[in-house]
Amino acid sequence: MLGRRARLRWVHLILGGALLMPYWLLGTLVVAPLVGRPGMFTGSLAVQFGAYGVALPLAAVTALFPPARPMSVAVARTLCGVPPERFADGPAKSRAARARTAGWVALHVGLGGLVSGASLALPPFAVSVMALPFSAALRESEIGRFWSLDQRWLVYGGMPAGLAMLAALAVAAAGAGALLARQAPLLLGPTPADRLAAAERRAAELAVRNRLARELHDSVGHALSAVTLQAGAARKVLDKDPDFVREALAAIEETTRRTVGELDAVLGLLRQGEDDGELPGPGLEALDALFATTGRHVSPVVRGGDVAGVPDAVSREAYRIVQEGLANAARHASGEPVSVTVVRGEDALEITMENPLPARPPVTRPGGGRGLRGIGERARLLGGTAEARPVDGTWRLAARLPLGGGDR
């Protein structure tokens, strides 16, 4: 009852009493004329408790405003000894959250007013009672006459009675503080609407993180695969074909320069900690440069209209799908020819990539990679489909992206 937590809760109750005071003073202006006791300050218990009854609903009404919950949570989190994660964050927006906050404020200021009043009045009275055995003047005073008891009782019973009063005050304050601590998570904790909003925020944050991860995986993964292939090919013909080595080094330079730019853009979003819904990146117009840096074994075909008219979101995702498909072919079927077909239809963009299956199964990473999974996620985000599987001795990647997917 006298530990640090109990003392903090007692301070919390005193703050509640202080918050109640303006409402209580307003209540006395309403109640005093009704009981025939004009004036704000009066000793009438009827006026005091009547004003108390008026003050509680007034305090509850003011707590219906959304900012009341963050302020109450900030104080309760510090003084009530309740784990911080059990409180709700942010203003109360729903009707249920505001009603709970109003109930908390009424409970806080109600108990705080009673404990504050007792803390102000009871200790001096208890000390006076404890002093009765040592002062004849006190026994003849109003305090002694208040008890209307035999003088011998006042001499021998004053000390136990005073100590009992102080103990009762400590027990009442500790009990009121414990009651507030039990009710705080119920009244200031998250409502179902708050939990749903928090879940939606976490899902949105996770979607942004996954999206950024896909961007990094596709751009950096493709660049490393392309650079590795070009460097390996250049090393093999270093003394025989200097022209090819120059082309390979130029391709490596262009690939790394483009990838550094894309990496800077994505890391810029990470530094800002937000997503504006439009990740930067190349689109279908950059396919020629991508094919040029990938190698001589790529056979691209683009038909069915001007790809420049494809919506930006579809164009970016289509570029990343082609890029990841080329990176997978480079990793698992290095040196094999790859055919890339991009067809723009009336309502969708279709991408087909094929390469011969290698004679020897490729070495895969433990748990598999994330490239094909990322391709599927990109297609689904636009309302499309994607699949990758062996067909008649070739590996085929096929994706269909609705042209209206850029509006999603």
Automatic annotation (TrEMBL):
<keyword id="KW-1133">Transmembrane helix</keyword>
<dbReference type="InterPro" id="IPR036890">
    <property type="entry name" value="HATPase_C_sf"/>
</dbReference>
<protein>
    <recommendedName>
        <fullName>histidine kinase</fullName>
        <ecNumber>2.7.13.3</ecNumber>
    </recommendedName>
</protein>
<feature type="transmembrane region" description="Helical">
    <location>
        <begin position="41"/>
        <end position="65"/>
    </location>
</feature>
<dbReference type="InterPro" id="IPR050482">
    <property type="entry name" value="Sensor_HK_TwoCompSys"/>
</dbReference>
<keyword id="KW-0812">Transmembrane</keyword>
<keyword id="KW-0902">Two-component regulatory system</keyword>
<feature type="domain" description="Signal transduction histidine kinase subgroup 3 dimerisation and phosphoacceptor">
    <location>
        <begin position="209"/>
        <end position="274"/>
    </location>
</feature>
<keyword id="KW-0547">Nucleotide-binding</keyword>
<feature type="transmembrane region" description="Helical">
    <location>
        <begin position="104"/>
        <end position="133"/>
    </location>
</feature>
<feature type="transmembrane region" description="Helical">
    <location>
        <begin position="153"/>
        <end position="181"/>
    </location>
</feature>
<feature type="transmembrane region" description="Helical">
    <location>
        <begin position="12"/>
        <end position="35"/>
    </location>
</feature>
<keyword id="KW-0597">Phosphoprotein</keyword>
<keyword id="KW-0472">Membrane</keyword>
<dbReference type="GO" id="GO:0016301">
    <property type="term" value="F:kinase activity"/>
</dbReference>
<dbReference type="InterPro" id="IPR011712">
    <property type="entry name" value="Sig_transdc_His_kin_sub3_dim/P"/>
</dbReference>
<keyword id="KW-0808">Transferase</keyword>
<keyword id="KW-0418">Kinase</keyword>
<dbReference type="Pfam" id="PF07730">
    <property type="entry name" value="HisKA_3"/>
</dbReference>
<keyword id="KW-0067">ATP-binding</keyword>
